[in-house]
């Protein structure tokens, strides 16, 4: 899990917020896993006293069992309600056929940035239920509202409010700060310090190269979503980032964009050369293993990577380290993109009101505690102070000077043959292999951006 996961921060938290589960996806979403059999409750016949809620959720690194506990809590608090759940690592494939015949889940937990782009399709087709009123709902068993509970900013992003009309259609769920993960033990052994600027990063790369260690790795090119979003904030600030996300004419020829492109292209030259070959859903963990084996120093990722690699072998003295992107200049702002997952209700859901009650329950202390036990952290006030171990390190990044970035490329009507994610992030493999030049990359991004500008929602 690809991937404040503005994370999504894009996105995003996840949270890298894998985020959360592996993003990368990534995007910035949890990394893909092998398909498993759907986990479903036994279907219960409807009676006048029984209401049934159909839940579909992506199984990420947090597992499927956590949803069973959440469902049990919701059913206990709502006598007469039964939840039928389908939890699967390939949820888009599982629920797709039934939806084509008109049978929609009432609530779907599936973030943007997944390979099949199901959530994006619902957004583009205006097939979402407006969830703005959920924010004013009182959380079951508590006195406050959902809006009071959520950390400010999470419902003001281009992801949660995709149409720019002030309405929320996707509710933020688990978030994960994303940034650069590394082996803190290796740096201690070598006497190296964590770079705070890109100039310091290149200097470290040269030192590492002399020791036969690459500076950089990445699971898949999808993980460059959170990296790129944070970098755009660093080179130009939030206002520039917003222009880029809305395909503003000329934005990719600006000095700020050029600086970002230069950094990524230079980073490609410091990347372990085996990475592109393994940057796929079957072998992405090999790229993550490079960090554990001291064959590369940094990789972009989300907090979910710790769970993904928990059973993997590692170098002696290994311990996780985590940092925001280096600043573009001494004293400049450093950003950590927050990837966050989303939960939403299809426009054709039969039980939208019950779905909204279920979503409101997910922000309760009771539900948040259940999720937190498996490392799924929600954007709820004061949650970070309750964490321990590695998570306390990761979620304290914003307490240590890093700024949070959130948001993603704006939603557009479909444009045949154009995928801004594939064009921007997917090309990084070609930069590493030198199959494409920086100029070709920028030209393709500009062309895609021009095509999408007129199709903005």
UniProtKB/TrEMBL annotation:
Alphabetical UniProt keywords: Signal
This protein's record includes keyword Signal: yes
Signal peptide segment: 1-18
Region entry Disordered, spans: 21-48
Pfam families referenced in this protein's UniProt entry, alphabetically: SBP_bac_1
Amino acid composition bias (Low complexity), ranges on this chain: 21-47
Protein name: Carbohydrate ABC transporter substrate-binding protein, CUT1 family
Record bears the keyword Metal-binding: no
Taxonomic source organism: Paenibacillus macquariensis
InterPro entries linked: Bact_solute-bd_prot1, Bind_CPR0540, SBP
